[in-house]
Fold this sequence. Notes:
Blueprint: H1 2-20, H2 26-35, H3 46-64, H4 67-72, E1 74-80, E2 83-90, H5 93-103, E3 111-118, H6 124-143, E4 152-157, E5 160-167, H7 169-180, E6 187-194
Parallel strand pairs: 2-3, 5-6
Antiparallel strand pairs: 1-2, 4-5
Helix pairs in contact: 1-2, 1-6
Amino acid sequence: xxxxxxxxxxxxxxxxxxxxxxxxxxxxxxxxxxxxxxxxxxxxxxxxxxxxxxxxxxxxxxxxxxxxxxxxxxxxxxxxxxxxxxxxxxxxxxxxxxxxxxxxxxxxxxxxxxxxxxxxxxxxxxxxxxxxxxxxxxxxxxxxxxxxxxxxxxxxxxxxxxxxxxxxxxxxxxxxxxxxxxxxxxxxxxxxxxxx
Length: 196
């Protein structure tokens, strides 16, 4: 039984790491979930998931293709139901405003949460820690009883966990409470779209 639990935990960790990548096809995520005995509850259509992946890709491309933003800032983005969450650091308001003006040109975005701090970009050690925290939070959400975690995207920046998705108030609170229990999480920010 211990070997089976270890295998399931390893599979969940790999699945969570894959979910960090916006370009993972929904079929691969579903196949990974099926292999670990999980049920995927993502109610978005394949078209919506594809649109969200495209929005995320375009947002990151806007940053990396602008030399000043690429050199002087650290900005990450993710999308759920065409709502774009943008986090990171820019050393000046002008650079933050430049990034946001580029984000506003992305087609099909309904709303943008601007969580870019005016600060120097965090170092690689902190970025690695953030990626690990995201994986730990996603695993905690998967383990949380009665939580439909596939409806939630997690993005961590400077030890602050941002949660984006389409949830009920109860599901949102359950997810935030689970994330707050993860060691190393400094703060949890809910950017949810609430449904009945």
